[in-house]
Amino acid sequence: MRLPSYPMRHGRRWLSAGVLLLAALLAGCASHQVRTPDSDPLEQTYESRMVHAYLWGAILDPQVVAADCDDGLNDVIVEDNFLYDLAGVLTLGIWMPGEVRYRCRAPAGDLGDFPEAPAQ
Question: Using one digit for the tens of pLDDT, what is the confidence trace for 5-62?
């Protein structure tokens, strides 16, 4: 006597759908950070700029992200998320958005004279 295979196939479909949904939810965000070894940010909040790549990266908008920092950059984060990735997939790479965040470096402060060793 052989059991019907319909319930087993139905269960496999739900399992496959569940695995695909879990993979889509988990694989959505990436963040890359570049920071100076002696990190000293001017402020704790990041300035944020949206960037766009068109035609598989052949055209970048903006070409250069200009940061208005007098004493240089402290750290930079390049970030994407699930919706940015989804936009790139749905347009087949014709439009790929992203986000660049940065903080300016604090100006070097006047720490005063170097202390002298005590007289013996």
Answer: 555 566 677 777 777 776 666 656 677 778 777 777 777 788 888 989 899 888 888 8
User: Both ends of the chain: CA-CA distance in Å?
Assistant: 102
Coil vs helix vs strand at 10: helix
Counting every residue, how long is the chain?
120
Q: Note whether residue 45 is domain-resident.
A: yes
Question: In which domain, by residue range, is 82 found?
Answer: 28-104
Residue 42 identity (one-letter amino acid): L
What DSSP line would sit under 28-55, residue for residue?
Answer: --EEEEEE-TT--BS-SSPEEEEEEEET
